[in-house]
Amino acid sequence: ALILRTHLRTMLQRMRACVRRMSAVATPPDAKARRSARPVVCYDVDALPKFDGEFYGSVRENMEKVDEVVVEPRDGRTFEVPAGHLFRIVSVEGPQVGDLNLWNASNLKEKFYSSKTRQLHATHLTRGDRLWSCFPYMRPMATITHDTLEWYGFDEDGGGVHDVIGSRCDPYTNAVLRGENYNQCCHSNLTRSLVAKGVPTEEAEILVHDVLNVFMCTGFTKDTHQYFMKASPVRPGDFIEFFAEVPLLGALSACPGGDCSASHSDNSTPCYPLLVQIYEPNPKAIQQWSGGLGPSSYSGNHGL
């Protein structure tokens, strides 16, 4: 698989070089000046609600586990988290990546919006970041309260953990690239988990959306700027923890890529289960909480 990826990458570089030669677009004399424009962060994130570390720390103290769900390798499971409760995704047997979807349990039209989350926070998430919902709701669905891989940061390849830049492995792309039918991609696993929950088959796939790639180590190559993956640093006992700002229905897929060090969308990589744990918060501390933010205050008429 490594030899094949190297060969494909070399071919892609040659093809791009060939296209550049064929296009023969002249470099303008002011190219250097154009490239030297100062980058500007797109969103004024200082206006976002502040992460209240003291509050989230207090609700974590003496919290009590009330439920857990095991997600078997190359499969998906749903789970529910009441607003004001916490949940963890835990590595239990070996390094394993998971693909996470979230919906408002009271309204499945409100779902996690990965690209807006990326724009408001970063390409990779950690403690203090929030998972935002789609339009027209546009509010935090969950807040990351603890991350045992927070230490990782970004490595020399530009890789980080818990990304919102990839989508999820899926059978359609796999069919294009390999000409195979494979039904244990994360997209399919998430779809089946919703059907098992009682969502009609014809609706389930439509509800599946771009994910938080939990424990996955990813970035963009420095030469071709392509999305890459590398062996996840996660080890048994590591976890990422969230506070539910709204009542949540979650779905988690234990990716067929295992630790994503070599391949995905096939059965060639060792895979392990993931554990989802649901916690009731510290009852005294949660009394301080007045509930999550309401939906966006935008009027919604789009100038019509």
How would you characterize this protein structure?
This protein is of the alpha+beta class. It contains 7 helices and 13 strands. Strands 2, 4, 5, 8, 9, 10 and 12 form a 7-stranded antiparallel sheet that branches. A hairpin with a 7-residue loop joins strand 6 and strand 7. The longest helix has 22 residues.
Keywords:
304 residues; alpha+beta; 26% strand
Which H/E pattern describes the elements? HHHEEEEEHEEEHHHEEEEE
Low-confidence stretches: none
- Averaged pLDDT: 94
What helical percentage do the residues reach? 10-25%
Q: Compute the number of helices.
A: 7
Care to count the β-strands?
A: 13
Shape: globular
Q: Radius of gyration, Cα only, in angstroms?
A: 21 Å
SSE-based structural type: alpha+beta
The proportion of strand residues reads 25-35%
Describe the biggest sheet?
7 strands, antiparallel
Termini separation comes to 53 Å
Helices and strands, with pairings:
Elements: H1 2-23, H2 31-35, H3 53-60, E1 64-71, E2 76-81, E3 86-91, E4 98-104, E5 107-111, H4 114-120, E6 130-132, E7 140-147, E8 160-163, H5 171-178, H6 186-197, H7 201-207, E9 212-220, E10 227-230, E11 239-244, E12 248-254, E13 274-280
Antiparallel strand pairs: 1-13, 2-12, 3-11, 3-13, 4-5, 4-9, 4-12, 6-7, 7-11, 8-9, 9-10
In short:
The chain is an alpha+beta fold and 304 residues long.
